[in-house]
Amino acid sequence: MKAAVGFRAHSGWAAMVVVALEKSGPVVLWRKRPHLVKIFSYSYRQPYHTAEKMELAEAREFVAGVEKESRELAFGAIRGLQGELRKQGIELTRCGLLLASGRTLPSFEKILASHALIHTADGDHFREAISCAAKRCGLEMATMKERELLERAVQTLRMQPAMLLRRITELGKPFGAPWSQDEKFAALAAWLAMHGDSKPRK
Q: Is the pTM above the cut of 0.85?
């Protein structure tokens, strides 16, 4: 059996859900919330906000350190997941990752000069860590903007919005809480990845 993992990233952590397709439809095989920073504090969960208060050279070094840490933690989470699934005869082959606006960021200096760009960069920081880790683990990437997720899912899966949301809610019942919007959206991203939907990220 093949499966996909879906991610909805937050500041320092992510909702991670594994979905496989059976004859009866999608099934959720795994659900976790891995941390993407070793020290789960504001300083590391919002690295660009922290860097804003530093001298430029120190800021670069700090963000680079958190970036390396986040990529290794994401890699460990995905690699560990692959190992656990492999024991069950399941091959993790794809990754669905939710994106924000997809805005291209300017230089490091310009990011730190704009509070709006700092927010964007902090979000992109953890999504990029997941993307790099997934590729390193040999997963085929499927990315999609979060604001387009439901519309894309309705078109691809050919389900009415109400039915689709009800189905996603039901998928999490065997696991209990938490099965919030984070897990639901991550599961939907994985489901779409299994259908080969969305364009691969460059």
A: yes
